[in-house]
TrEMBL record:
This is DNA methylase N-4/N-6 domain-containing protein. Keywords: DNA-binding, Methyltransferase, Restriction system, S-adenosyl-L-methionine, Transferase. One of its GO terms (biological process) is DNA restriction-modification system. It catalyses: a 2'-deoxyadenosine in DNA + S-adenosyl-L-methionine = an N(6)-methyl-2'-deoxyadenosine in DNA + S-adenosyl-L-homocysteine + H(+); a 2'-deoxycytidine in DNA + S-adenosyl-L-methionine = an N(4)-methyl-2'-deoxycytidine in DNA + S-adenosyl-L-homocysteine + H(+). The keyword S-adenosyl-L-methionine applies. Pfam families: N6_N4_Mtase (PF01555). GO terms for molecular function: DNA binding; N-methyltransferase activity; site-specific DNA-methyltransferase (adenine-specific) activity; site-specific DNA-methyltransferase (cytosine-N4-specific) activity. The keyword Methyltransferase applies. The lineage of its organism: Bacteria, Pseudomonadati, Bacteroidota, Cytophagia, Cytophagales. Belongs to the N(4)/N(6)-methyltransferase family. N(4) subfamily. Residues 20-80 form the DNA methylase N-4/N-6 domain. It comes from the Bacteria.
């Protein structure tokens, strides 16, 4: 492989960009693209009317930007929550209709839930197929009853776009209406002590358990937020309606993308040390798709989980100099996982090659990862896997990730990481982590 020069692109840091614009912030999703970054990539590597794809679409950032820029697009993701968010973010409804409908479904649900309990026949009927043990682990019986009636009301909605937006509001209400430790992204019950009713009994240094609000309060708040954000973009979405994305919920390694179809594929893949999407989105999965356990949710095929990589074992034939170096130093188990991860990535790179039109571009945004004490330079291995497939490497860019939470403080001379208390002192500089953007061409 020829030597590739990495170009630093400070201009792609988008330090002061508003990442919540359009409908991007309707629902949270981990490791989202910065919309401004994909917007640049779409403009640079496609033209109006072209067809582009994101094969790990997540919350559909690429697809929403593509729609707004007048490109047709395909969104593939194995996570049904991701597909729901992508559909809802690009849905076409009248904002007033959404406001009325969200108030109406809630009013009807509260009406039906009156005098009902978790033991009522009607409620048992509504909860059929759901894992009650899991629901009771996360929700109070009162909130379960209201959620059951609310979901029933939403599912009666015949306009699918409107139903998707209501389901998105429902989904984003679940965590705040549950006993999930509010500040944790991991699925953790809030086990802090209960707030004593008598203020005199409260200790100044104790962090008490959050008072879990009722479903009505959370749903109303979320519905207002979604309606406000959606209303600001509704007109533009309607104008761009012919560019609404096709949304497919599937494992990319089981899905055929076809041959010579796409002008560009723009994506950011899951990591080996991936966020556990299934852990994070389990509440939505229990309610919307009657998923029984987190393990059964994971079995859908999330790359970056052990379950998935075990499936690739037969096909591990990755050859890469960087990977060979890692093989030498890694413990056998770590080595196996790393190899299998790259084998699954190699497979979807081959699918992408086939699906791109000759001359089409493949843009991959990827950072490094740490796994069991090893630093893995993902982009280097990726490049070594991509070139033998036929891709030519046009550019490798490195961009800063200006995220305050990830910034580390380092000593300007020694480069050593400094604890937070050194902030503002001489020689303490803020270092932004970086990620790579690989620009390849078929
Ligand atoms: C880094 S995230 C993409 C986030 C996206 N760029 C956004 O802006 O929201 C990676 C995505 O890959 C998806 N994924 C993991 N394994 C997959 C598979 N086998 N097929 C398709 N998608 C998969 C995950 O569900 C996750 O949404």
């Amino acid at each position: 492989m020829r030597t590739i020069t990495t170009i630093t692109r400070e201009d792609l840091g988008f330090r002061s960009a508003n990442t919540d614009e359009r409908t991007h912030a309707l629902h949270s999703y981990p490791a989202k693209f910065i919309p401004q970054l994909v917007n640049e990539l779409i403009k640079s590597f496609s033209k109006p009317g072209d067809l582009i794809a994101d094969i790990f679409a997540g919350s559909g950032t690429t697809n929403l930007e593509a729609m707004c820029l007048g490109r047709h697009s395909l969104a593939v993701d194995v996570n049904p929550v991701a597909s729901l968010i992508t559909r809802a973010k690009t849905a076409i409804v009248e904002p007033e209709v959404l406001i009325l409908a969200s108030a109406q479904v809630l009013a009807n649900a509260l009406d039906s839930a009156r005098n009902q309990s978790i033991e009522s026949e009607r409620v048992i009927e509504l909860l059929k197929g759901k894992n009650m043990e899991r629901l009771l682990h996360w929700f109070s019986p009162e909130n379960i009853v209201t959620l059951a009636f609310l979901l029933e009301e939403i599912q009666k909605e015949e306009d699918i776009d409107l139903q998707d937006l209501l389901l998105l509001i429902f989904s984003s209400s679940l965590k705040p209406a549950s006993n999930w430790l509010d500040w944790s992204v991991k699925p953790q019950l809030d086990c802090r002590p209960l707030l004593p009713t008598d203020p005199a009994d409260r200790q100044p240094n104790v962090r008490y358990r959050r008072q879990v609000p009722g479903v009505a309060e959370v749903f109303t708040r979320k519905a207002k937020e979604v309606a406000r954000r959606y209303s600001a973009s509704a007109e533009h979405l309607r104008q761009q309606a012919c560019y609404r994305p096709e949304v497919i919920c599937d494992d990319i390694n089981r899905h055929s993308l076809g041959k010579d179809r796409f002008d560009a594929v723009i994506t950011s893949p899951p990591y080996l040390t991936s966020y556990e999407y299934a852990d994070l989105h389990q509440l939505t999965a229990y309610w919307l798709w009657n998923t029984q356990t987190v393990t059964s949710f994971k079995k859908l095929g999330f790359i970056g989980t052990q379950l998935y990589e075990e499936r690739m074992v037969e096909e591990t034939l990755v050859t890469s100099a960087s990977l060979d170096l890692m093989r030498k130093v890694m413990k056998p188990l770590a080595q196996k996982r790393v190899e299998r991860y790259f084998a699954s990535m190699q497979r979807c790179f081959a699918t992408t090659y086939e699906a791109l039109k000759p001359g089409g571009h493949f843009c991959i945004v990827i950072g490094n990862s740490r796994f069991r004490g090893y630093e893995i330079d993902n982009h280097k291995v990726f490049l070594e896997l991509l070139e033998p497939l036929g891709f030519s490497i046009e550019n490798v860019w490195e961009r800063p990730i200006p995220n305050k939470r990830l910034t580390s403080l380092r000593h300007a001379v020694t480069g050593r990481i400094l604890p937070k208390v050194f902030e503002g002192t001489e020689n303490a500089i803020e270092v932004y982590p970086t990620e790579h953007i690989l620009i390849l061409r078929k």
